[in-house]
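Posting this for the archive.
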Amino acid sequence: MDNSFMRRVWDLHYHIGPEVIPRKYGVAELRERMKGNIKGMALKSHFYPTSVFIDDSDSLIGSVALNNYVGGINKDAVYAASVISKKPIIVWFPTINAKRFVDKSELEIPNEWTQGKIKSRSAKEIEGLSVLNSVGGLSEDAKAVVKAAKVFNNVIATGHLSWQEAKKLAKYCLEDDATVVITHPIYHLIDMPIEVQKELAVKGAFIEQTYAMYSIDNIPMSKIAEQIKEIGAEKCIMTSDSGQVFSKDPWVCMNEFAEALKKEGISERELELMMITNPEKIISYIK
């Protein structure tokens, strides 16, 4: 894609440092490097609210991930991360501490994310987090988080919850007129059925497709393209999910993602929907 196109692109899933997991950039360096390369980015950490890093720039959006490091599924963490921000943020439900992720992992932090740069704790040491109560309904803590997020006009992302949990959470959010992004449902530890993705998209959710599913998790680009075609580009967004020390710059990842999808039959009009139009719809809620 040409530079004029890329300067209009938003990447709503980028991992920033400093963090427990080694990251490519801190905020100051990223802000300088992204000038002229990409319009804007949402910054994510599995450990800390990134809203503390964000000024009143229109190019960066903060977030909080509801892992154990901020007290889990905790409305007060949403409140604190939101109050300190000059604008609304993205609230990710549990990622590396989601029960599904913990139950299916040997380590809290997968080796492929760090290339052995840190010594991770065993997943057996981690208390996995669920949004469900003892009878399988949505927990009061999860509902309280949604309520807190709505007060600040935040966007909710489903994180690494199991697809069954993500479905219940998303339906609750959509019934409450909240903005929802289904976080990379193609990920092997989520593996949300395509029919469920389509159902949630019809109800108003946005379905995320990330470059890291291809570049790190080795999911074929053809499978990613197939899901986009099934769901419809009008309900998908593309993100890099990059920021690893070994990853390319996010605008490079996004451009490579676009070019690879073009080879799989995704049109430039569809790419514009997923990289520009739909992210702008999402961030219109958080400006």
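The first helix runs from residue 3 to 6. The beta strands are 10-15, 40-44, 60-61, 63-65, 90-92, 155-157, 180-182, 206-210, 236-239.
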